[in-house]
C-alpha cells in the first residue's frame, strides 16, 4: 500500500514557481514529486498561474514515513508562503495511492 501526498497552492503564482516549489519539496522530503494537471478554468488571462498541484507517493517500504514526509512538505510550504506578500492558499493532503511503479513521469 502506498500513500499519495498532494500539495496544492492557489493564488497568483509566477511561471517559475511550480518548478521552484517542486525542487524545494524534493530537497525537504527526499521524495520525487511530479506536477498534476489543473483544469484550464484555473488560468488567468494575464498568463499567471492560479493553482499548482504537486504529488508524491510514499510506498510502504520507503525509508521515510508518511508522517515525516507530510511534516517536511508542510515545512516547505510554510517557508514558501512566508516569502510572499500576497495571500496564497496552500494545503497538504494525503490519500491512499498507487504504488511508485504506477506513477506517470
Notes on the structure:
About 6% of the residues have low confidence. The relative contact order is 0.32. Helices cover 29% and strands 33% of the residues. The radius of gyration is 14 Å and the shape is globular. The chain has 105 residues and is an alpha+beta fold.
- Mean pLDDT equals 77
Stretches with pLDDT under 50, minimum 5 residues:
42-47
What is the tally of beta strands?
A: 4
Q: What is the helix fraction of residues, given as a range?
A: 25-40%
Radius of gyration: 14 Å
Q: Alpha-carbon distance between the termini?
A: 20 Å
Q: How are helices and strands ordered from N to C?
A: EHEEHE
* Coarse shape: globular
β content, as a range? Answer: 25-35%
Major beta sheet summary: 4 strands, antiparallel
| Count of alpha/pi helices | 2
Give the helix/strand class. Answer: alpha+beta
Q: How do the strands of the widest beta sheet line up side by side?
A: 2-3-1-4
Question: Could you provide a short overview of the structure?
Answer:
The protein has 105 residues and is of the alpha+beta class. 29% of the residues lie in helices and 33% in strands.
